[in-house]
Design goal:
The complex is a heterodimer of chains A (330) and B (81). Chain A has 330 residues and is of the alpha/beta class. Chain A contains 12 helices and 10 strands. In chain A, the strands form 3 sheets. Chain A has a 6-stranded mixed β-sheet with strand order 7-6-8-5-4-9. Chain A has a two-stranded parallel ribbon with strand order 1-2. Chain A is globular and about 60 Å long. With 81 residues, chain B is mainly alpha-helical. Chain B has one domain (3-80): ACP-like (Non-ribosomal Peptide Synthetase Peptidyl Carrier Protein, Chain A), CATH 1.10.1200.10. Chain B has 4 helices and no strands. Chain B has helices spanning 3-15, 35-49, 55-58, 64-80. The longest helix of chain B is centred in the C-terminal third of the chain and has 17 residues, at 64-80. The chains are: A alpha/beta (330), B mainly alpha (81).
Chain lengths: 330, 81
């Protein structure tokens, strides 16, 4: 029950999701607080939304890693254990991403061949057939992680974008094999010999070109790029409006273009709905939502987690990884 | 299998490094173990040997050898009880 606007917006989002869809939701946190919040809605404990007690809270100044040894009863750990036991099919969290990832690794476990989970996301409107991985789960990466990122991205592109044989590229500072950090250069060699449809390095200027269906990078680069990308539309709109201030009719046209036709605000929600924010590599569906998520974002996150369960993404990933494990490549 | 071999296996599995590079002198940085790897290793070792390792003791481990020595001593103590 974490998140900048918890518990009210989280509960409201859960209610929205339950009203919209056939889904059973467990709200994990302080029973007293959650039942009070839920009382304002027509759903009550025992219907489509249930409350599960989690007595501990991770405070802002506490290291997320403490969930493993010191906070066995915090909400994200209780929820992770529910996924592991089969009591729930998926976990959705708007709390600390690191705490969610650590709980998932420790209490749900990783699928064979994957070291750490990664976040895959579609780039949406500007590059509808491109996904990027990792979007922030792994700041420092070992070379073999790039290979599992590529496999996860490939499964995502097949499942959510219907691309039969996704083209995979490594994001670097040059197209040549010897460009990039040490980990990226080693990853190039692993990807080249992986049997995946690896097309080599691409640079930042080709991220939106559609040359690659799966762009692989470490979580540091991916997260910086994602946040820049999600916000560039708003800045472009402000800049254009400022430039055209002295021509009022054109200003109105700009508003129409940006608000109606130009998808400045839709990138995040598209990414949210199309499997974005899922921790790929965990042996269960774990969906991370932005800390600043409001009710509609939470409802989208719940919907996308449900879609991931229905699409069988974990089984698909396991099946792909098995091929590589058999070849001794992971 | 000795305590040292079991802990080496646990750490190698978690960090995905070749266990032959883990010596008693190896620091966690040399093994490329980050903080989550170390916590996972502590939990796995606690479960394997049925002991609890307090944080203040874990923080003193400078290298793999310190970790092994601590667990070896604790296992001996547990056997005496």
């Amino acid at each position: 029950m974490g998140g900048d606007y918890a518990p009210d917006e989280i509960v409201k989002g859960a209610v929205l999701a339950a009203q919209k869809d056939d889904v059973e939701i467990f709200l994990v946190g302080s029973t007293n607080i959650l039942e009070k919040e839920l009382a304002g809605y027509k759903f009550a404990n025992g219907s489509s939304i249930h409350v599960v007690e989690a007595s501990e809270v991770i405070k802002e100044d506490e290291p997320p890693i403490d969930v493993v040894r010191r906070k066995p009863n915090c909400s994200v750990v209780v929820a992770a254990k529910m996924v592991k036991s089969g009591a729930a099919d998926a976990l959705v969290s708007a709390g600390s991403s690191a705490a969610a990832a650590i709980s998932a690794i420790q209490f749900i476990g990783m699928v064979d061949g994957v070291y750490r989970p990664a976040i895959v996301g579609s780039l949406g409107s500007f590059a509808p057939n491109t996904v990027m991985v990792d979007l922030g789960a792994n700041v420092d990466c070992k070379p073999h992680q790039f290979l599992t990122f590529a496999i996860a991205g490939s499964v995502y592109a097949k499942k959510f974008l219907n691309i039969t044989d996704p083209k995979i590229a490594l994001l670097s500072t040059g197209s040549e094999e010897n460009k990039g950090s040490e980990a990226v250069r080693e990853a190039y060699s692993l990807l080249k010999n992986s049997g995946l449809n690896f097309i080599g390095n691409i640079e930042g200027n080709d991220v939106l070109s559609g040359k690659a269906n799966v762009i692989v990078c470490d979580g540091f680069v991916g997260n910086v790029l994602l946040k820049f990308y999600e916000n560039i539309g708003g800045y472009a709109k402000d800049w254009t409006e400022r430039k055209l201030k002295k021509y009022p009719p054109l200003g109105a046209l700009v508003k129409l273009l940006f608000n109606g036709l130009f998808p400045t605000t839709k990138i995040s929600s598209e990414t949210e709905k199309r499997g974005g924010g899922i921790l790929w590599g965990v042996d269960g569906v774990v969906r991370i939502a932005h800390g600043a998520s409001r009710a509609p974002n939470i409802a989208n996150a719940i919907e996308s987690a449900k879609e991931a369960v229905k699409a069988g993404v974990i089984e698909s990933l396991k099946s792909e990884l098995t091929k590589f494990n058999q070849g001794g490549k992971l | 299998m000795t305590v040292e071999e079991q802990i080496r296996d646990i750490i190698a599995k978690i960090t995905r490094v070749d266990k032959s590079i883990i010596t008693r002198e190896s620091t966690f940085k040399e093994i490329k173990a980050d903080s989550l790897d170390i916590v996972q290793a502590l939990v796995a070792v606690e479960e394997t040997f049925g002991i609890e390792i307090p944080d203040e003791e874990a923080q003193k481990f400078q290298n793999f050898g310190d970790f092994v020595s601590y667990v070896e001593n604790r296992v001996v103590q547990e056997e005496k009880v």
